[in-house]
Amino acid sequence: MTMRESNDYIVDARNITKDFGDFRALDDVSLQVKQGEVVCILGPSGSGKSTLLRCLNHLERPNEGAVWIDNDLIGYKEENGVLRELSSAALAKQRTKLAMVFQRFNLFGHRTALENVTEGPVQVLGVSQAEAKRKALELLKRVGLSDKAKNYPNALSGGQQQRVAIARALSMEPTVMLFDEPTSALDPELVGEVLHVMKSLAQSGMTMVVVTHEIGFAREVADRIVFMDEGKVVLDDTVTEVLNSTNPRARDFLDAVL
Ligand code: ADP
Ligand code: MG
User: Fold this and answer.
1) Local structure of residue 180 (DSSP, 8 states)
2) Helices 188-203, 158-171: inter-axial angle, 10-degree rounding
3) Which amino acid residue places its CA nearest to atom 27 of ligand 1?
4) From first to last of its 258 residues, what are the pLDDT tens digits of the chain?
5) Which listed residue, of 52, 119, 121, 182, carries a Cα 20 to 30 Å from 168's Cα?
6) Which of 43, 41, 40, 30 is nearest to 250 (CA)?
7) Whose CA is closest to 38, among 248, 225, 256?
8) DSSP string, 82-128
9) Is 195 in contact with 166 (CB distance < 8 Å)?
10) Is the pTM of this model over 0.90?
């Protein structure tokens, strides 16, 4: 299971099962994403979407199955034919390939927008302050927040905070970005500005896995939609196929959100 040939998937999750005690949160879930692809994951609350994202970056360790990111087996290394768990330092290094943006913005409250974006490169990547600052200003510009660099999170709207969180994620130069309902905690009038930034990221060729209930975004931006229910992938297909699916479980969900 942990041996395989290199391939051109940036995300290659195979046959993931995740149990919490007696409860099976993920049941034999596989997900493959190619370079530059945008895959949206839809599904009712509790269907395992967040758990799947957390398995991708090994925040949760699957009970069965394995995840390769850019052909790198996550969480383990092979030594003399034996699989060993990575040290937390080695895992942290591996995780820099994945950036995650959460529903809650998770900014450092006592740091300015700019400092939030320079922190990772300086602390984790060993980039100089000056270089990190130069790049952070560029990233803040990219998310439309050039004029907010000196603001603390509590002086930013939710949408602005989420855009800082995206700039912060980008500062680590990830290979793939994972979004877990990035607009669900926002007031409705702030959703658009965040989706706009995500859309421009997608157009720039970023590989993205996006858990979202924003069907409009999925329709416009996604290359594929994965529909999950009760810990299983029910559908994994083009936007048109999924949105027009006659699968009863998908239909119930889609008709409620469309
Ligand atoms: P979704 O993101 O689709 O709403 P989650 O992946 O968060 O679903 O959760 C899937 C199921 O797994 C839910 O029933 C949830 O209660 C359960 N679950 C998630 N994390 C844990 C945990 N750490 N311990 C126990 N149960 C969990
Ligand atoms: Mg969730």
Assistant:
1) E
2) 20
3) 20
4) 567 888 899 999 999 999 999 999 999 999 999 999 999 999 999 999 999 999 999 999 999 999 999 999 999 998 888 889 999 999 998 999 999 999 987 899 999 999 999 999 999 999 999 999 999 999 999 999 999 999 999 999 999 999 999 999 999 999 999 999 999 999 999 999 999 999 999 999 999 999 999 999 999 999 999 999 999 999 999 999 999 999 999 999 999 988
5) 52
6) 43
7) 225
8) EEEEPPHHHHHHHHTTEEEE-SS----TTS-HHHHHHHHHHHTS---
9) no
10) yes
Is the separation of the CB atoms in 178 and 99 below 8 Å?
yes
Dihedral angle, C-alpha 11, 12, 14, 17, nearest 10 °: -20
Q: If we measure between CA atoms, which residue out of 251, 214, 246, 208 comes closest to residue 229?
A: 251
Ligand 1 nearest atom to the CA of residue 47, by list position: 3
Which residue in this structure is represented by tokens 């970056």? 57
Q: From the CA atom positions of the chain, what is the Rg in Å?
A: 18
Sign of CA dihedral 53, 59, 63, 67: positive
Q: What is the DSSP letter of 149?
A: T
Here the tokens at position 95 are 């995780």
Mutate to test the pocket of ligand 1, among 18, 19, 23 (most ligand atoms within 8 A of CB): 23
Q: How many residues does the chain have?
A: 258
Alpha carbon of residue 102 to chain centroid: 8
Cβ–Cβ < 8 Å for 65, 130: no
User: Ligand 2 centroid to 49 CA: how many Å?
Assistant: 5
Nearest to 226 by CA among 235, 215, 218, 217: 235
